[in-house]
């Protein structure tokens, strides 16, 4: 499940704004931000939800018009920027696939798109009102040079199963683009710490702190350790916030309080045979 143990990695969350529908401008800014991350020695930089396209659209036509495919030529520019800077980047965008639009995140390095994920849980907010929910049961955790990176997006955080699936698939760190509105304090202050601690993984969350189409974003981008300790947390200021992490800490799923006397192994002590109700489809 795991490649060789990674060396310490420099992980960054980019709390930066975007303009809804202004794709060329958003891409250009992202290229500059990736290059800057490389100059600062960052290994992984996580950008906010729908960073390339904007998020707060008011109608389905504008949402669809902003969506792009994975083969859009501008995506190749991101790959080239990652190659030149030596950076891994997780970027959010509205994705077009045939006649459907998804809220997606792509993990990109200098070789191409390492993996991508379509948001599975959609709130009644912004572009999520007009996109399809992701249903792909394929991989959401991807091998990279720094370790195994899992992907989820914003509202997925409300569902403990989302993070647990990534942890069970061997994620060392979960990269989570988000677009928290200013009312989402509970998510930023508590849910992030709980998801990291209950799954013993790192969690890197990138939000925005600006205003888009009249809606203020919360900010609060953060990196959380498997212990639940918040290593880095932003206010609403724009910027890139980073720390060095030892991703091997996410590979030991034991909790040792007194060696040999008080030790817990929550992943080994799971009782999935008793959790059947979790996989039942709710009745309308």
Automatic annotation (TrEMBL):
Matching SUPFAM superfamilies: Carbon-nitrogen hydrolase
Top-level taxon in the UniProt lineage: Bacteria
CDD domains: nitrilase
Residue ranges annotated for the CN hydrolase domain, each copy included: 9-247
The UniProt record lists the keyword Hydrolase: yes
Record-linked InterPro entries: Aliph_Amidase/BUP, C-N_Hydrolase, C-N_Hydrolase_sf
Record keywords: Hydrolase
Sequence intervals crossing the membrane: none
PANTHER family cross-referenced by the UniProt entry: BETA-UREIDOPROPIONASE, NITRILASE C965.09-RELATED
Name of the featured protein: Putative amidohydrolase
Organism field: Nocardioides soli
């Amino acid at each position: 499940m795991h490649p060789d143990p990674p060396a310490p990695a420099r992980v960054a969350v980019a709390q930066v704004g975007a303009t809804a529908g202004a794709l060329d401008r958003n891409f250009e800014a992202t290229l500059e931000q990736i290059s800057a991350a490389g100059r600062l020695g960052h290994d992984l930089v996580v950008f906010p939800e729908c960073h390339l396209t904007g998020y707060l659209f008011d109608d389905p036509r504008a949402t669809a018009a902003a969506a792009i495919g994975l083969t859009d030529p501008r995506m190749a520019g991101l790959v080239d920027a990652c190659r030149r800077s030596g950076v891994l980047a997780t970027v959010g965008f509205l994705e077009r696939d045939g006649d459907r639009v998804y809220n997606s995140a792509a993990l990109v390095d200098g070789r191409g798109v390492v993996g991508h994920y379509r948001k599975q849980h959609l709130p009644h907010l912004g572009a999520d009102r007009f996109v399809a929910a992701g249903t792909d049961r394929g991989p959401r955790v991807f091998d990279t040079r720094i370790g195994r990176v899992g992907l989820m997006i914003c509202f997925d955080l409300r569902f403990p199963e989302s993070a647990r699936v990534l942890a069970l698939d061997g994620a060392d760190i979960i990269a989570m683009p988000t677009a928290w509105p200013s009312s989402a304090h509970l998510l930023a202050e508590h849910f992030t710490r709980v998801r990291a601690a209950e799954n013993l993984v790192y969690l890197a969350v990138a939000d925005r702190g600006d205003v888009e189409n009249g809606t203020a974003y919360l900010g609060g981008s953060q990196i959380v350790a498997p212990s639940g300790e918040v290593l880095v947390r932003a206010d609403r200021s724009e910027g890139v916030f980073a720390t060095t992490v030892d991703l091997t800490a996410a590979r030991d799923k034991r909790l040792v309080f007194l060696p040999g006397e008080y030790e817990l192994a929550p992943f080994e002590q799971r009782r999935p045979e008793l959790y059947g109700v979790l996989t039942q489809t709710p009745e309308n």
